[in-house]
Q: What sequence folds into this?
């Protein structure tokens, strides 16, 4: 399956609207800008967005002040309002959340990173308070939960400190099944700019093929970028796309990275990701959206934009 606008479940589970691009409806990046104060970094922006669609509304969960996560709400991916704080951490390293709707129990699961550990918290609603259920993986960041068509769960994450992307098969949304293992690591030149990193996994399935999107390079630099690898199985082996990175700096764009993807019922895909505010080495980040697409050979394409008018997503 691909991740539809109805989240990580079959479209029939929600009252899912029709979505399309329509002449005259436009937007320009960035779509969400907010300054927060980090415990170490000082002034910084929000980044690492995970997006979920539920009952006519998009919910965006980014990295913020490193002490927890706030949720942002939108009807169209362009106009956002800040909602409540949904998770608070006693530690200071709260990064890169991923929120998954579980059709088995109709609850929402937040996979957090705090102080280099990936854990899970649960809530009854997407803007409710998530209650911690404990740590799943140590020495790990940037979790992404994927539910396949056959009902099997897979937790992807970046192993710390070598920044290899790994997969942990899961019995369900909170219980591990067997051992985790490495899928890919930083071995390409673009993945080593600033720092040798592969992180921020995001799994999607399209036409029977598994696409592992990820980010590479120094996350606080202009060189941070997005690539992908493909496989016939969610467990690999994965082969990196020869045309990586597919989203990169240029034309006023700096450091595009750490994405999530929303698919619409009419077959379009939107990438929600962050860019750096400028070319400096810092954590001033802004939230952006851009359409991505597949060609007739299954290659994924995209272009990061900044400040130019683009056709917008319309729900009706």
A:
């Amino acid at each position: 399956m691909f991740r539809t606008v109805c989240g990580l479940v079959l479209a029939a589970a929600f009252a899912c609207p029709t979505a399309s691009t329509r002449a005259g409806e436009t937007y320009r990046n960035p779509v969400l800008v907010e300054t927060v104060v980090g415990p170490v970094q000082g002034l910084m922006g929000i980044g690492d967005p995970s997006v979920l669609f539920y009952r006519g509304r998009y919910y965006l969960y980014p990295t913020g002040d490193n002490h927890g996560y706030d949720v942002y709400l939108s009807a169209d991916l362009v106009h956002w309002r800040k909602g409540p704080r949904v998770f608070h951490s006693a530690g200071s390293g709260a990064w890169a959340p991923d929120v998954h709707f579980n059709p088995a129990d109709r609850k929402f699961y937040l996979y957090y990173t705090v102080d280099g550990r990936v854990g899970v918290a649960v809530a009854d609603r997407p803007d409710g308070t998530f209650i911690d259920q404990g740590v799943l993986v140590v020495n790990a960041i940037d979790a992404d939960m994927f539910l396949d068509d056959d009902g099997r769960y897979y937790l992807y994450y970046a192993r710390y400190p070598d920044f290899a992307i790994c997969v942990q098969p899961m019995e369900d949304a909170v219980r591990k099944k067997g051992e985790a293992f490495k899928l890919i690591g930083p071995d390409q030149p673009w993945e080593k700019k600033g720092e040798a990193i592969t992180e921020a996994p995001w799994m999607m399935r399209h036409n029977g093929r598994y696409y592992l999107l990820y980010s590479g390079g120094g996350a606080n630099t202009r060189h941070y970028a997005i690539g992908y690898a493909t496989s016939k199985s969610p467990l690999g082996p994965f082969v990196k796309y020869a045309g990586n990175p597919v989203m990169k700096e240029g034309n006023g764009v700096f450091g595009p990275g750490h994405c999530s993807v929303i698919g619409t019922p009419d077959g379009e895909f939107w990438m929600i990701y962050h860019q750096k505010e400028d070319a400096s080495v810092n954590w001033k980040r802004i939230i952006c959206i851009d359409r991505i697409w597949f060609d007739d050979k299954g290659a994924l394409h995209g272009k990061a934009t900044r400040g130019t008018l683009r056709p917008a997503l319309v729900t009706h």
Notes: Residues 11-315 form a domain with the Tachylectin-2; Chain A fold (CATH 2.115.10.20). The CA atoms of residues 249 and 255 lie 6 Å apart.
